[in-house]
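Summary for the steering committee. The consortium agreed at its last meeting that each partner would contribute one worked example illustrating the joint modelling workflow. Our contribution is presented below. We chose a case with several input lines so that the handling of multiple components could be demonstrated. No manual editing was applied between input and output; the record is shown as generated.
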Amino acid sequence: MGTKCGGRSRPECRKSAMDIEQLARDVCDGNRRALARAITLVESSRDDHRRDAIALMDALSHTGKQALRLGLSGTPGVGKSTLIESFGMMLIREGLRVAVLAVDPSSARTGGSILGDKTRMELLSREANAFIRPSPSRTELGGVARRTREAVALCEAAGYDIILIETVGVGQSETVVAQMSDIFLLLLAPAGGDELQGVKRGIMEMADLIVVNKADGDLEPAAKRTCADYSGALRLLRKRPQDPDGFPKAMTCSALQESGITQIWEDIKFLTAWRREQGHFDARRAEQAEYWFGQEIRQGLLAQLDREPLRSHVLSLTKQVATGTLTPSGAAEQVLAALRHDTP
Amino acid sequence: MGTKCGGRSRPECRKSAMDIEQLARDVCDGNRRALARAITLVESSRDDHRRDAIALMDALSHTGKQALRLGLSGTPGVGKSTLIESFGMMLIREGLRVAVLAVDPSSARTGGSILGDKTRMELLSREANAFIRPSPSRTELGGVARRTREAVALCEAAGYDIILIETVGVGQSETVVAQMSDIFLLLLAPAGGDELQGVKRGIMEMADLIVVNKADGDLEPAAKRTCADYSGALRLLRKRPQDPDGFPKAMTCSALQESGITQIWEDIKFLTAWRREQGHFDARRAEQAEYWFGQEIRQGLLAQLDREPLRSHVLSLTKQVATGTLTPSGAAEQVLAALRHDTP
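What follows is the complete predicted structure of the assembly.
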């Protein structure tokens, strides 16, 4: 067995120096440092780290522990962190262990990260039974997806009961989060009636609960109206087999005044229990695993093109294709042949 | 040299029995039977035919001939065939040679084909200088795209001056056609003002000309109103560098009464001349070639998964992933390793 890594969260150990079995045991024991180190390992794109990460995930895939995975999407300013703080603290008070992860589509471009500033969830971040992890930055959404998905599995193995996966509602990150969540919440702000069109139909179809936040003070009537609008819109959607009567549903809350938070939790528990009973819970997890398997293969195949010497070969062929010296099909055949090792 | 294939349009010759150089010469000489046979060859997915097709495309990629490629999209009933008939006959009268091809997204599912019934273009189909080819059926859109793209290049090598590429305006087929056209026309029917939302913004952004058909009889006022609506909508789009002032533009026509057809042609000629002068014409072709190169690589990579024994391997892994026996990443790694021949 290799020597254990230090407590630093960067996996700077020499190749194969990491004791994956020990790390798996520590994560399983609920050791927060080990969990943080494990997440850092799955976030690394170094080849040897990747191998270790796959071994770690494999070692932890049979713990039998299962958390409830809650996806949460909403545009900036809608009150996601305030809701996570209120909702998370309520869960902690119920004796549950809560992990908060994030998929940040913007970090790929800007290098910034949501959840980076833990003071956004001041109370929750101080709780021993809460684990908050910012989104990894500087990676493309595909990479973020894999890492978050593996971080979810790590938190699950570490014994967290509820895993909240937050994302900013832009681009394709909702799909990413929905595909790794058991229940998907869409958080909205009160708005005028014509705002309804702002939420894409595809996003609405993914939501299990639509929660209109800021139902307090002056905004309460607008929040109720927005909620009614979405209730109406949800009724127009095709009934999904995984929903009991009344779901997906729209509701209001005030994360700031902590009103409506308990109702959200009651609805989540009801929906989860129903889906478990009907077999939809496990079926959805199985579908999601298949989806990610397909995504991993696709990404792995395309990643081959980014590796030298193929990368330079593709670039040189691209120039010849652009000038018409080679046809697109002929050039592609050369690339595929190189991948098959048909060429010297 | 091998023996020449017979005149049958199915490539039923034995492997390597086809004389590709001779076929290339015949296509280049404008032999219609050879052209039809060549298109049938590029439509085949048999491995040996595919190799022959790549050799043929390569042999014909340096003829220096260049047709004007016109993409045409519109929903069913909008009058595409009537327009192609009127527009095509006008071009024939100008002494031009016209080829008509189709990308039919529905054929992948239904096995049906548009343009299958040549009587839809009764006059044009009887012209010696017109070549009409129905969409290949029973293939996925990716396959249809490659085949149509190669058919376009074959028609070009055969000396056609104008190649019309028709598609039904549903799904992603517009993008496919726009990516193989020099000029992209969107054909619309007169409609109420709120119909504007029926055309997706992305489709509108691809269009160089929006043509509102059926500007005749009772429908003329509605056609003019629809045209004005789209003119307004086009002005709101960001100015593209490849457009002179006034483009993209909306206009009306009546394919039935053959009014407005000449104006469409004048606008196409003006736009083409301007783009050629400014270098945008060649730049767009180069970009399109690069795009198709990327698509061909992607499709080729994914096609590996459909071949045995990998296909069965993937299916068996999928089951293990669904039941949780394997993680998605671990299973994907096995597939990628098998592709790298790392496994026995």
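The mean pLDDT of chain B is 84. Chain B is about 50% helix and 10% strand.
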